[in-house]
Amino acid sequence: MKVKLKSTVDTKTKLENLCAWLAEKKARNLVAFELGGHNNLAEGVIVAGATSLRHGQGLADFALEMAKENNYEFLHMEGYQNGLWILLDFNDVLLNIFQPEQRELYRLEDLYPNATILRDDRE
């Protein structure tokens, strides 16, 4: 389990909050997994879809803004400029924002067959 740096919010609550914020900004096909110790990289993973480069960047910006307001740890972001796959590392939760083609190509949802699914809004 990752050590909490600032926030005392448990992983499940953080996953639920991030999903709610993403849904508020019209993220598509949201899926959230609680890994429960099955992965050394994170305790939870969110996969979200965006409809355009600007939408993906907007989702990332809003997630960062809300995380800051709620004192969630933020460690790093990758892929923001090209917007095809934006990865945000919130210490114990990894948020992946994909354009449709990249999401289909990488199929991250298939990597966690033993994970607990907390949310699945796939169409």
Features:
single chain; 123 residues; alpha+beta; 31% helix; 26% strand
What does this entry look like structurally?
The chain has 123 residues and is an alpha+beta fold. The protein is built from 3 helices and 6 strands, in the order αββαβββαβ. The chain has helices spanning 11-24, 53-69, 100-106; strands spanning 28-34, 44-49, 76-78, 85-89, 93-98, 116-120. Strand 4 (85-89) and strand 5 form a beta hairpin. The protein is globular, with a radius of gyration of 13 Å. The model has no long low-confidence stretch (mean pLDDT 92).
Model regions low in confidence, pLDDT < 50 over at least 5 residues: none
Spatial arrangement of strands, main beta sheet: 3-4-5-2-1-6
How many H/I helical runs? 3
Distance between the termini: 32 Å
Mean pLDDT equals 92
Radius of gyration, CA atoms, in whole angstroms: 13 Å
- The shape is globular
The count of DSSP E runs of length 2 or more, i.e. the number of strands, is: 6
Q: Specify the helix fraction band.
A: 25-40%
Order of helices and strands: HEEHEEEHE
Backbone structural class: alpha+beta
Q: What characterizes the major β-sheet?
A: 6 strands, mixed
